[in-house]
Write a structure and sequence with these properties.
The chain has about 625 residues and is an alpha+beta fold. Helix content is about 65%, strand content about 10%. The protein has helices at about 5-15, 25-55, 65-80, 85-110, 115-155, 155-165, 270-290, 295-305, 310-320, 330-345, 350-370, 375-390, 400-410, 420-445, 450-470, 480-505, 510-535, 545-570, 570-580, 585-615, and strands at about 170-175, 180, 190-200, 205-215, 230-235, 235, 250-255, 260, 475, 540. It is globular, with a radius of gyration of 32 Å. The N and C termini lie far apart (about 105 Å).
């Protein structure tokens, strides 16, 4: 016992040591405990990394269903009606063949305890089987929808009357505001969508609903959506498969008369919708007709898709600048309207479900006013699903919601599979989902973040939509991205304030005028951007059409993305190149590695130059 131990030594032991230490822990047990702690920490870190990677990874489980449904819809709507039952039988056979192996394994394989790896394999196999069954079942449902609608159209008395190719006395319901056609130096022509509700010929009269496309003279410019008019003429283009909404048009009608008044036409919901539209147009014209005719013509198009007041010069400038999508009701418009209402209601402490229900009701009213045609309904569905993705707190599920919306819309209307508006809408949303954030990250290295975010949205959408736009307009518009970047800051202002003005056009005309004045500033800016961009040198360059033009545009856009990757993601690019080279034979890498890449790039460049020079 140390009676004369120094005081400082006792203080040190009391501070850092155990005054009553127990027996020392064996070294082997201590090492085991430390190893167990390290294993737990590594397992937790690995699980966190796996969860983060799962959140970053796109949910593509429904992608096979989308591909199957879209391909089946395109095939079923293009083939003769007599082939549809054979396609249905083939899909039933495929579905049974897909279900049979799983049922046999479940019945014949004895139940036994499985290890973790075996359970994991079984779970993956079950997911694959469920994906296959879902894709086949949805494809079969699409064929059934096509068959039912085709049969209903073929058995419609109205469709049979029109199919005879005789001169008919017709009653039409106007489905969209007339749009002016580019007719050169000839008399102006207008195109509009309408529905035949009654047809008479030789003492026979048939009623129903048969969509047609009307191409008429200047006298038809004054008709408005929802109006019922009478005329005479013959529907060209064959009977088609019309007779049911969404199936497509029965043909083209060139009226032989001016629009005639229909006695006793009902003035119900359509008259209210027409009054709202006319009240908003009157507010816009009263505010901007003298100050800026272009803003007065463009604002109704940006708010409710009415392009009837836009002249040919403004139309051409919007096409050259790549801004025509702003004059059509899109999913972005619907999302902005829903989001604005949700923010306003939630700021008043309205419950989430009540606010969302009221917002959906307001969106339904907007759709009725704008016009419940297929493109507007598609935009409303896409916009509602996009807002649901944001409000659910799971923005990474936007891809799954996009796929779900595509499947639902194609099941409701399989003829959308060949609709360019639908295809462009899907491609634009897909571009924002796949490369939108990546473009922001890549561009933020080269410029400020706010500018990168402004450029990334139109760039991502344009890169995915440009190959399809070539089929509609075989030319290259190099100023599309800058034009959309300059127009982007005012789109939300025009949409939200303009929609508010349209909603109160009947009850509060002064407030509608104020909203028209505020939102018209944005429309004036968009018109100025379009006019300025269209006047720049090389604003519209020739481009090959058809499949060659699509492939060339896809190669060009892939080159743009690759250039961004080369500038920013250098390490990842090196790793990808090393991975590709590792799969090539050694003798190929030594002899033709870099030379083959240069030769391929040179061939692509020569092909591109030769195709453009031929135009």
């Amino acid at each position: 016992m140390r009676l004369h131990e120094p005081r400082w030594s006792r203080y040190v032991k009391a501070a850092v040591g155990d005054p009553n230490p127990g027996p020392p822990e064996p070294r082997r047990a201590k090492l085991r405990r430390q190893a167990a702690d390290l294993h737990r920490r590594l397992a937790a870190a690995h699980q966190e990394q796996a969860d983060a990677q799962e959140l970053r990874r796109p949910d593509i489980r429904i992608l096979p269903t989308v591909i199957a449904v879209w391909a089946t819809a395109g095939l079923a709507t293009a083939m003769p009606p007599t082939m549809i039952p054979r396609l249905a039988m083939a899909l039933v056979l495929v579905l049974l063949l897909g279900l049979l192996p799983g049922l046999l394994l479940a019945l014949l394989r004895p139940a036994q305890r499985r290890g973790s790896s075996e359970r994991r394999r079984a779970r993956r196999g079950g997911v694959r089987g469920a994906t296959f069954v879902l894709a086949a079942a949805c494809a079969l449902a699409v064929v059934a929808v096509v068959g039912v609608k085709v049969q209903a159209g073929a058995s419609s008395p109205l469709a049979q009357t029109v199919a005879q190719g005789e001169e008919l006395m017709l009653t039409l319901e106007v489905g969209a505001t007339p749009r002016r056609l580019d007719s050169g130096n000839g008399p102006p022509r207008f195109i509009l969508d309408a529905v035949i509700v009654q047809a008479s010929a030789g003492g026979r009269s048939s009623s129903g609903r048969l969509p047609v496309q009307v191409i008429a003279g200047p006298a038809w410019e004054a008709v408005r959506q929802g109006q019922k008019v009478g005329t005479a003429g013959k529907v060209d283009g064959g009977p088609g498969t019309a007779g049911v909404a969404g199936v497509g048009r029965a043909g083209i009608l060139r009226p032989a008369t001016v629009p005639l008044a229909v006695p006793g036409a009902a003035a119900g919901k359509e008259s209210l919708v027409t009054a709202i539209r006319r009240g908003w147009i009157a507010a816009v014209q009263g505010t901007w007709a003298k100050r800026s005719p272009e803003a007065a013509a463009l604002l109704p198009g940006m708010v409710m898709g009415d392009r009837s007041a836009m002249d040919s010069a403004l139309n051409e400038s919007m096409k050259t600048a790549g801004l025509t999508h702003l004059t059509a009701v899109s999913g972005a418009n619907c999302t902005l309207i829903l989001a604005s209402l949700m923010i306003g209601l939630r700021s008043l402490h309205t419950p989430r479900r009540a606010a969302f229900g009221f917002s959906l009701a307001a969106l339904l009213g907007f759709v009725l006013v704008v016009g419940p045609d297929p493109s507007v309904l598609r935009a409303a569905v896409m916009g509602a699903l996009g807002l649901m993705a944001l409000l659910s707190g799971r923005p990474k599920r936007v891809g799954a919601l996009l796929a779900l919306s595509i499947v639902l819309l194609l099941l409701a209307d399989p003829w959308l599979a060949g609709d360019y508006a639908f295809i462009l809408s899907v491609l634009a949303t897909l571009g924002l989902f796949l490369v939108g954030q990546r473009c922001v990250r890549w561009l933020s290295v080269l410029m400020p973040l706010w500018l990168a975010q402004t450029i990334a949205i139109p760039l991502a959408a344009q890169l995915f939509c440009a190959p399809v736009i070539v089929l509609l307009q075989a030319r290259l518009t190099p100023y599309t991205v800058p034009a959309n970047m300059l127009a982007a800051p005012v789109i939300a202002l025009v949409t939200t304030v303009g929609t508010l003005g349209m909603a109160c056009a009947l009850l509060l005309p002064p407030l509608a005028g104020l909203c028209a004045a505020i939102s018209g500033v944005g429309a004036w800016w968009v018109a100025a951007v379009a006019r300025w961009m269209a006047a720049l040198p090389a604003a519209s360059l020739p481009w090959p059409g058809g499949p060659e033009g699509v492939l060339l545009m896809a190669v060009l856009n892939a080159g743009v993305l690759l250039s961004l990757i080369v500038l920013v993601e250098k390490q990842r690019l090196r790793a990808a190149i090393a991975g590709i080279m590792a799969h090539l034979p050694v003798w190929w890498r030594e002899r033709f590695g870099f030379a083959s890449v240069v030769a391929l790039a040179a061939l692509l460049a020569l092909w591109w130059v030769a195709a453009v020079v031929r135009v």
